[in-house]
Amino acid sequence: MNVNLPHDLPAVEVSDILAREKAYSQDLQRSGKWRHIWRIAGRYANISIFDVSDNEELHRLLSGLPLFKFMEIEVMPLLRHPSAVRDDDR
Amino acid sequence: MNVNLPHDLPAVEVSDILAREKAYSQDLQRSGKWRHIWRIAGRYANISIFDVSDNEELHRLLSGLPLFKFMEIEVMPLLRHPSAVRDDDR
Amino acid sequence: MNVNLPHDLPAVEVSDILAREKAYSQDLQRSGKWRHIWRIAGRYANISIFDVSDNEELHRLLSGLPLFKFMEIEVMPLLRHPSAVRDDDR
Amino acid sequence: MNVNLPHDLPAVEVSDILAREKAYSQDLQRSGKWRHIWRIAGRYANISIFDVSDNEELHRLLSGLPLFKFMEIEVMPLLRHPSAVRDDDR
Amino acid sequence: MNVNLPHDLPAVEVSDILAREKAYSQDLQRSGKWRHIWRIAGRYANISIFDVSDNEELHRLLSGLPLFKFMEIEVMPLLRHPSAVRDDDR
Amino acid sequence: MNVNLPHDLPAVEVSDILAREKAYSQDLQRSGKWRHIWRIAGRYANISIFDVSDNEELHRLLSGLPLFKFMEIEVMPLLRHPSAVRDDDR
Amino acid sequence: MNVNLPHDLPAVEVSDILAREKAYSQDLQRSGKWRHIWRIAGRYANISIFDVSDNEELHRLLSGLPLFKFMEIEVMPLLRHPSAVRDDDR
Amino acid sequence: MNVNLPHDLPAVEVSDILAREKAYSQDLQRSGKWRHIWRIAGRYANISIFDVSDNEELHRLLSGLPLFKFMEIEVMPLLRHPSAVRDDDR
Amino acid sequence: MNVNLPHDLPAVEVSDILAREKAYSQDLQRSGKWRHIWRIAGRYANISIFDVSDNEELHRLLSGLPLFKFMEIEVMPLLRHPSAVRDDDR
Amino acid sequence: MNVNLPHDLPAVEVSDILAREKAYSQDLQRSGKWRHIWRIAGRYANISIFDVSDNEELHRLLSGLPLFKFMEIEVMPLLRHPSAVRDDDR
User: Fold this and answer.
1) Which fold does the domain I2-7+14-72 belong to in CATH?
2) What's the rounded mean pLDDT across residues C58-85?
3) Is chain J in touch with chain H: ≥3 Cβ pairs within 8 A?
4) Shortest alpha-carbon distance between residue D10 and chain C (Å)
5) Where are the domains of chain E?
6) Is E6 an 8 Å CB contact of chain I?
7) Domain H2-72 is in which class?
8) Where do the Muconolactone isomerase domain residues begin and end (chains A, B, C, D, E, F, G, H, I, J) (predicted)?
9) How far apart are CA B80 and CA B86, in angstroms?
10) Which of A29, C14, D26, I86 could form a disulfide with B85 if both were Cys (CB 3.0 to 4.6 A apart)?
């Protein structure tokens, strides 16, 4: 997930949208739907792992992101690896 | 990590290398260095998260993979995201 | 799904693998898991739509393809479009 | 079909164009010309299958889309696959 | 249409396949199905215009090329341009 | 030749430039310099074949296009194909 | 690190941000964190080598750059090469 | 060297900058530093050969171009070819 | 022009083909058809300028290269630049 | 600099070529021509900085590498950055 904020967006609008984004993300993390999130060094971007029941739910979560219209998102479908040992890497 | 096995590799050599790859990966997972691994749907490839002290250690682990010479690996440097809530997403 | 058959594969092996591929594909189509398949004009490739319960099932179906090791597959996660009118475009 | 709406388009203009787009798409779906449509998870984009008599008709349908000037469209020419079992995958 | 002949193909096989390719192409040109063909300077490749009734026919013509398995083909769907003045640019 | 009109260009300016573009193109087609033109399905783009004496003339024709500053043009140098049967595919 | 300054940024703002960028970079170079920096000929871009304890520190340094929001940065994780002879190429 | 002039740049500013660009280029050509320049057919771009003592000098010449901030430049390091026969292809 | 020699080509065949390539190139340079040639630093590749009457002649020269079947060639159509001062940069 | 060793190269030939490569690289490092070298984590590749008098010398050093014919090398022309503080970042 890359974020591209237009450089002429008013500062007030930016801080508001970022606050809502953070709350939204943390709610989903606490619910277990958004299982992992990491920052990519040197970029305004992240790598996230979602645990959803289907693509319908995934899209509803992603398109609900306050920053969605400024994001470029690539979804990679993952599954449990046959060599995985941790129970929750599913 | 993508794997490209030459199609003319003898079957015995293939099964031997895959067995060693699996043991190697599971040892590192149990030690906590290889924190997560997922299969990418439809491809002979995986997405993995490593928890290492520096690039030196990361390269030693990766270049020690029995499948290393058949792999195409891209490393993306990650760090804790400011919105992360799980203690171990570091 | 692109297919790249090595040009030095014996003709007998080729016709055998293609026969098994066709039977495998048609069984899955009849079961409803492999909902659609189209040939791409001018290429040895197809566009297919799968209707599976999760990524685990999708990968099991794809990696079971007799031609799997000669294929380059890209999976695009789809869902029902809000403007869709047909019941089975899900 | 990817959609890129300029972020400074007035909200009224956006909701008007989206309503016209939906009506246009559903009319064509009901006529059978626009056979399938799916949303791509995490993106403002879709995958669609058209059943038209020639490229002339296809272009007339696509260039008539209310969102056409904000879209990036790639057309892939498809045909019936020799292994297809459904009568209407043509 | 790019052609990639393996450099270890026997010379006899090469000259035979090229002769059949030329005959096949010229038959289709005379029938009017293969309307135009140009060589691209400096490459073993061509740009061709086909005049076919549908994608089914196009694929049958292309996959029948003696060089088909050594070719990389990209099909671009064309139609009459609204500014065209020549009757046969359709 | 792809055309990218800025979405904020006044409608009057757009219709004026398009009328001049059409007249310019048709004059060149009638003179035989612009031998063929086709629309690419689903895109605001065309494929054209020019018959000019050298690159100097080609550039003069292209840079004289009223839409030139909004276009992205790729020139591919063509010549008569050894298998061509039509006299004017040169 | 590529820099893309919007061409309509006021000249005063530009010279201010460039002065702060230079001071920031030179402080880090003197501290030893920013070990090397070279200009890429013909481009407004540089190649830099950082010597940091982890990705966390690297991202803090990079995201603190006054030009950060106008930059496109790609981080490549490096380590000591087994053939290196200089002590400080680590 | 590609040139991308913003389409909303005032006409006076454009003609001024182009006049200065031409004078700058011709001075360097006469001095022998800018050995060759060709227009690329159909594009607002050129291919140039510079004969400079080092990268420092090359960058000084390029970044001094009046159009520099509107250009995308790729530098390819060249040297005398072992098969060259002309004395000044160095 | 990039050259890719298969690594299993016999050494005798390699030296023979390289000798013929050099002679062929130097004959064309002396005739004035092959106006310039430079080596690209660090690659088995060159940048060349040809001065030919049309694409037909260019292709005949290029496809006659002894190394032609091992080369990847990209032709860029050039013309005299309006700012050029040297008579022979045409 | 990426290295691609064919997987069917005899082990004896591989160890011999790697030994010669290491000696060659270390001689150049000691002479000051090959100023820096780093391994890229997870890949059989390196990033190197050369300090040479011109492209001629650079190409002679690179094409003399025992692994040269198995390498893919990209040269980026660098120069002293105006913000550099270290004397030897030139």
Assistant:
1) Alpha-Beta Plaits (3.30.70)
2) 93
3) yes
4) 22
5) 2-72
6) no
7) alpha beta
8) 1-83
9) 10
10) A29
